[in-house]
Amino acid sequence: MAAAPLMLAALFTSPAEAAAQWKWRDAQGQIQYSDRPPPPGVLDKDILGRPSGSARAAQALPSAPVPPPSAAPLPGLKASDPELEARKRKADAEKEAANKAAEAQQAKKRAENCEQARNYQRSLDSGMRIARTQANGEREILDDAARAQESARNREVLNSNCK
Hints:
This protein is 52% helix and 10% strand.
């Protein structure tokens, strides 16, 4: 029975430790989260969140000077890790390929929408009867005034979206 309060106390203390998160903005401007402090090169103004109780400890630590990008690396330190650089280049290439694929998909969708709008405009201009279904499910045949209004709206869509 004496072990139950001890286990209960341990249960309530572990989530607070697990929730201790650091939050900072990296050199590329992206927000990073970690249970470890940010790298030494991160400026204090870029640290967006600290675990409770670590603010004083982080301020007490001296920050390492960050060399400008054009400066030579400090003596005794490796300039860069070739494997890390290769992984970064591969990740950047994959991200760029994904962006290009998404742009191509959007361009294809835009072209399909434009083709549908052009076909609809040809139908409106042909003079054949056009019917549309209303919200209540009834069919409505467009008269000359509604056809002219629909044609003007469709031309605006074509002019703004299809070039």
